[in-house]
Write a structure and sequence with these properties.
This protein is of the alpha+beta class. The protein contains 6 helices and 11 strands. It is globular, with a radius of gyration of 25 Å.
Length: about 220
């Protein structure tokens, strides 16, 4: 007695079924069409839209969506938590330090000056008092004046951030700071520096602070 011989048919995977909507003889055209598919704008905005725990008095949602893709991948999808803002907590660098005393996550520092220019910095770690510079190459400066410009680490030095009770500085080289703030969070300045090869973040190299916010990304 002979054993019946069976024919086995390899079932296509879900992906193959999806891609086989076109006739088999049009496979080449199908492949080309797949490569040319663009992500719809609404889908991109949804990906880049951060989840906010707090309300910003400085940045609009559109600006947040533009800035989000420049953040390190390790914070992608993490909520933005408003941990300090001058409108609620007053103008004090010491108070800003205290708001991050138990924080280990990266933070976003956002400033609006009295000329309504918006700019700031991403710090790879919480901002704190230190006798020496700290941070890493994830740190960057940015400005909306008027379009978003992001200034990443150049690798020329490691003057990422340094702060004491009287001032906070980010970026350096040749005696110039990319961004600095005084102890009262009243005055600040921004100059081109070697760390980030940045332009002045505001329209004026020295400015008055109107609003300041710190967002923890965790």
């Amino acid at each position: 007695m002979k054993t019946p011989r069976c024919r086995y048919t390899l079932l296509p995977s879900l992906l193959e079924e999806t891609l086989s909507l076109e006739p088999v003889n049009a496979a080449e055209e199908e492949s080309q069409a797949w490569e040319e598919i663009d992500v719809p704008p609404f889908f991109t905005e949804e990906i880049n839209e951060p989840v906010l725990n707090g309300q910003s008095n400085i940045m609009r949602l559109e600006e947040m969506q533009k800035l989000a893709p420049h953040l390190p991948l390790r914070v992608t999808g993490h909520p933005w938590n408003l941990i300090y803002c001058t409108a609620r907590d007053g103008f004090s660098l010491k108070s800003m330090y205290r708001s991050m005393s138990d924080l280990a996550s990266p933070v976003l520092l956002v400033i609006r000056d009295t000329d309504d220019q918006v700019f700031g910095a991403f710090s790879s770690t919480a901002i704190h008092v230190s006798s020496c510079f700290y941070g890493n190459g994830e740190t960057f400066l940015f400005s909306f004046t008027p379009q978003l410009k992001v200034f990443k680490w150049t690798g020329k030095n490691t003057f990422f951030m340094k702060g004491d009770a009287d001032s906070l500085a980010m970026g350096g080289g040749s005696g110039k700071f990319g961004l600095w703030l005084d102890g009262d969070l009243n005055h600040g300045g921004s100059h081109p520096c070697e760390t980030f090869n940045n332009e002045a973040l505001s329209t004026k190299e020295e400015f008055l602070i109107k609003d300041l916010e710190v967002w923890a990304l965790a």
